[in-house]
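Quick one, probably user error.
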């Protein structure tokens, strides 16, 4: 909530719902996800995010504002699962079918780490999904050495060769839109997101999102 470029962005409204609510409801529609945890900070500014999690009936965990890696690692312990899916609150439009596509690809490839936002990314920026074996969170925490490692959950994994990583690219060019960004990081991003949200039904899939992007011409 303390973003310097767009303060309070995760709680900004898009067509009657906050960014966080968009993300939670989309994750809920996944065929694989069985527990959602909002990993937020102990900062009082984030009380509103806890209230949103409580209202929607999902778990929350509060930890360090600066050590995001430890916060996410500790939050995962609530779930206790062997697999973790990482989503960020400034990417509200990540759809359930993209989440399922990533998890399915992870299970099929038998890798340790999979993301759709790595090298040769073809999805729009702002639809990032990371799927990893949960042990990689502890590995990252134990091997972090820089401020960036603690701020960005996947930095340590991206630098190591100890685990098998897959950078997922959709095999249908009709799904490609790498030149578009729909992440919400600035005021202009938010205004764009509002226009996209106005074009979407309450429940939508990736192709519906592409249609909305094409309608508003971003």
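Nope, works fine. Designed sequence:
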């Amino acid at each position: 909530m303390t973003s310097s470029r767009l303060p309070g962005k995760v709680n900004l409204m898009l067509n009657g719902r906050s960014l966080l609510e968009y993300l939670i409801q989309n994750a809920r529609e996944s065929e694989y996800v069985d527990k959602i945890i909002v990993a937020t900070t102990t900062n009082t500014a984030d009380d509103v995010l806890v209230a949103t999690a409580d209202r929607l009936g999902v778990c929350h965990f509060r930890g360090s504002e600066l050590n995001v890696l430890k916060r996410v690692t500790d939050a995962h312990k609530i779930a206790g699962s062997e697999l973790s899916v990482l989503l960020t609150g400034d990417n509200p439009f990540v759809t359930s079918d993209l989440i399922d596509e990533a998890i399915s690809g992870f299970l099929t490839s038998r890798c340790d780490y999979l993301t759709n936002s790595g090298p040769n990314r073809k999805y729009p920026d702002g639809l990032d999904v990371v799927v990893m074996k949960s042990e990689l969170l502890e590995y990252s925490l134990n091997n972090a050495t820089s401020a960036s490692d603690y701020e960005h959950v996947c930095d340590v994994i991206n630098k190591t060769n100890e685990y098998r990583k897959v950078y997922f690219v959709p095999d249908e060019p009709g799904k490609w839109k790498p030149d578009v960004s729909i992440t919400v990081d600035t005021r202009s991003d938010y205004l764009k997101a509002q226009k996209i949200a106005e074009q979407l039904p309450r429940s939508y899939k990736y192709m519906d999102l592409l249609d909305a992007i094409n309608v508003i011409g971003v």
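The CA atoms of residues 1 and 8 lie 4 Å apart.
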